[in-house]
Amino acid sequence: MSVSTQQRSPQRRPAPPAVRSGRVEGRAGRPPGRFAPRRPLGRRTTAALAGLGLVGAVAVWAVLTYGKLVEPFFLPTPSATASTWWRLVAHEGYLGDIWASVRRVLGGFTLAAALAVPLGLAMGSIRAVQALVEPLLAAIRYMPATAFIPLLIIWLGLGETEKLAVIFIGAFFPLTLMVAEVTGNVRRDYLQIAATLGASSWQQHRLVVLPAAAPGILANLRIAMGWAWTYLIIAELVAADTGIGYRIVAASRFLQTDVILAGVITIGVLGLLTDACFRLLAWALFRHRQDTR
Amino acid sequence: MSAIELSGVSLRYRARHGDVLALDDVALQLPSGSFTCIVGASGCGKSTLLRAMAGLEEPTEGAIRVGGELVRGPSRDRGMVFQTSTLYPWLRVRENVAFGPRLGGLPRREREAQAIALLDELGIGDFADAYPGELSGGMQQRVAIARALATHPGVLLMDEPFGALDALTRRSAQSFLLEAWSRHPRTIAFVTHDIEEAVLLADRVVVMTPRPGRVQALVPVELPRPRTHATRDEPAFRQLVRELLAMVLKEASADGLVASS
User: Fold this and answer.
1) What does the domain layout of chain A look like in residue ranges?
2) Per-residue confidence at A27, pLDDT binned at 50, 70, 90?
3) Cβ neighbours of B157 in A, within 8 Å
4) Number of cross-chain residue pairs from A and B with Cβ atoms under 8 Å apart
5) For residue B231, how many other CB atoms are within 10 A of its CB?
6) Measured between beta carbons, which residues in chain B are less than 8 angstroms from residue A214?
7) Is B32 near chain A, with CB under 8 Å?
8) Measured between CB atoms, does B185 come within 8 Å of chain A?
9) Pairing relation of β-strands B187-191 and B204-209?
10) CA torsion angle A214 A220 A221 A227 (round to 10)
């Protein structure tokens, strides 16, 4: 290869290529651009932009519907959706459906978390448990929880147990692996220091691994809560006689797009509320901490 | 206080390109109550040696005895301080210092009172209620030293504890350590790559050479105590630093790590 290169090299040196350095700033340096990566943003601007995003989305919706750009049958107006929501709550027992859904989400999520957190902790810090369980969980994780629904209906019927099982399967397996990951990343020198201070294995688990992993575990629980809502609605769409998902399916049979939209927005707001609870909890528990890594 | 004895200590670990001999037949005696600094170019096994004394690494051959007892694993009799802060960020300073006594089952009131007394004695009592994240790097390392002292270990093992501090903070941390050591005499093994630091602190300096990790020389430091930063200006101090530096650099350049002049 080197030989052919030498042969091909011309006798005369070619003229040096024109300097291509793009826009050249002077010696004063380049001030950070408006959209420079991670450039800080003032509090007011942040709040204004956040508001603009929300208002903008509703505005687009309003223009499309009030402006008669979209048939009201396909997309009802904001005011129509709001009044439908109010009608559902005031006259059609919607709060009962909301409560049914919330109960299922909390039940399924609590069940999944109650088993996933201890198992994940054990997997992340005890190699034997990891070797035993990880390949199995990793395989099951890729089996879609939704595909289990027919099987669960056959096994458990159409009652509450089946709904809880769908949420459990959807949340438990990935949550366990994520808790294991967080636990496995607890700094080794934290454990070594504990050992030089006389900590037994159990003390290392209880007094070092658990508190060190706690913020990461809470962050993963927050994500898992989002999955729980998704799987709840799927379970209710497939087979239920109460719940927000059930109301959405029932409405679709009668082409009541306003009821569907009201349901979707209700779920969104409930998700936002649970998320806020998790953030509040994280703030209350870990606001003092500044983990160094 | 306990003496540390190493005899025929070798430590071999498997790396991707064959075995690495991190320690090769190391024999050392650290007398009870002495302050020994271990210096050498990076990769000379000085940290591995310290971790073996702590019981965090197991020698492939040879024996380490502390106070006559064979080291089999970490023990509360051998306190450790690392280069990076290992204070638990979820505990206040006093709770961090009380962590060792807590493991021993001492009730909260007692162990925290002890911790606060120790912090006061060391002159850092003002920070007892702070969280580690609120402290400067130098203060974090002082608290880490206090935490290691709180279980009254016979031995204190320090792995470049001031290595991440800036030069000015490092000086005050060194004074802090000398002061703490005079109040709480311990057998100290202290790993550093800063030769001035080693001469300022130590009774004896162990010079190690890399690949394989061996003890090249054991140099006594006969400067009178108490030592202060004024000691650095004394001709005897400068002379010793020069000699040790030549020793370490010679080994490093022979190894191709530093261009020889």
Assistant:
1) 96-286
2) confident
3) 196
4) 77
5) 15
6) 90
7) no
8) no
9) unpaired
10) -170
Instruction: Flag if B134 and A192 touch (Cβ within 8 Å).
Output: no
* Cβ within 8 Å of B, A 193-232: 193-200, 203, 207-208, 211-212, 214
Residue ranges and CATH numbers for the domains of chain B are 4-254 (3.40.50.300)
Tokens of B213: 């990790």
Note whether A196 contacts B99, CB cutoff 8 Å.
no
Superfamily in which the A96-286 domain is placed by CATH = MetI-like (1.10.3720.10)
Least confidently predicted of A95-109, A140-154, A174-188: A140-154
> Do you know the residue count of chain A?
293
A105 neighbors A243 (Cβ within 8 angstroms)? no
Picking from A2-16, A127-141, B91-105, which range would have the lowest pLDDT averaged per residue? A2-16
End-to-end CA distance of chain B: 44
Burial of A1 (0-12, 13-18, 19+ CB in 10 A): exposed
Q: What is the ipTM of this complex?
A: 0.91
Taking only the tens place, the pLDDT of each residue in A120-177 is: 999 999 999 999 999 999 888 888 888 888 899 999 988 899 999 999 999 999 999 9
- Pull the structure tokens for residue A104: 């299922």
Work out the angle at residue B210's Cα, subtended by the Cα atoms of residues B217 and B198, and round it to the nearest 5 degrees. Answer: 50
pLDDT at A19 over 50: yes
Cβ-nearest to B89 among A193, A199, A291 = A291
Contact A292 B84 (CB under 8 A): yes
- Residue B83 contacts A where some CB pair is shorter than 8 Å: no
A75: its two tokens: 């997309």
Question: 3-state DSSP call for residue B61?
Answer: strand
B207 vs A89: CA distance, rounded Å: 80
